[in-house]
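Hi everyone, sorry if this is the wrong subforum. Our group has a chain we'd like a structural model of before ordering constructs, and none of us has done structure prediction before. Sequence below.
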Amino acid sequence: MKSELIDKAAKVIPHPPILINLVSRRVRQLNQGRAPLINTANYGPRLGQGDIALIEIIEGLISAEMLSTPDEDV
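Answer:
Right subforum, don't worry. Here is the predicted structure as tokens:
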């Protein structure tokens, strides 16, 4: 993950455990085949799943209120 994205996301969600949990869950969703909420082509070729999750947080597309979803196994 890119450190500048972590710094920006930490300004949106200032509590590290919540930020880590949100990123982890979103990465899990992406790895299971869910589509990114951003156009990844706009960010360059070396964008990992964690980077996608962080950008989604920075852009306000996902939030801590979205941590638990009815169709997700915890």
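For your construct planning: The longest helix spans residues 16-31. Helices lie at 3-12, 16-31, 49-58.
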